[in-house]
Design brief:
This protein is an alpha+beta fold. The protein has helices spanning 44-56, 118-125, and strands at residues 2-9, 16-20, 31-32, 35-37, 59-65, 69-73, 76-89, 99-103.
Length: 126
């Protein structure tokens, strides 16, 4: 099983950041929480800080966690480890995504999300 981290980044207005995957990648065009794979010997908390720096050019702090999600993407089993994060420095930039969008927990259903992210959205809205 592959450990993958993602960040639920909230702004001061209670909105969270959604990122759209590039069309030429797996799940292209789907919206997701930003993040990526945990490297060997790396803690999930360190991985999310690194991944967000690489993907969005911002510095974040881990504030809390959500329930992990185990998902099977066509025989590739992942454990998605979500963290609630706050921005310490910078403005998010779409370095590895097609688009970024700040949305409210009430309107996440308007976007076409990656399936593994949906349980996290339900936990947020819950």
């Amino acid at each position: 099983m592959l450990d993958v981290v993602c960040a639920v980044i909230f702004d001061n207005d209670g909105r969270f950041l959604a990122c759209r995957r590039p069309s030429d990648k797996h799940l292209g065009g789907k919206w997701e929480f930003p993040g990526g794979k945990v490297d060997s010997g790396e803690s999930p908390e360190a991985a999310i800080v690194r991944e967000i720096r690489e993907e969005l050019a911002i510095e974040v702090e881990v504030l809390s966690s959500f329930s992990p999600v185990v998902w099977d993407y066509d025989g590739r089993l992942i454990r998605l480890i979500p963290f609630r994060c706050g921005i310490l420095a910078g403005v998010p930039q779409a370095l590895e995504h097609d688009d970024l969008l700040w949305c409210t927990p009430g309107d996440w259903g308007l976007l076409d999300w990656a399936p593994a992210d949906v349980p996290i959205l339900r936990e947020i809205a819950g």
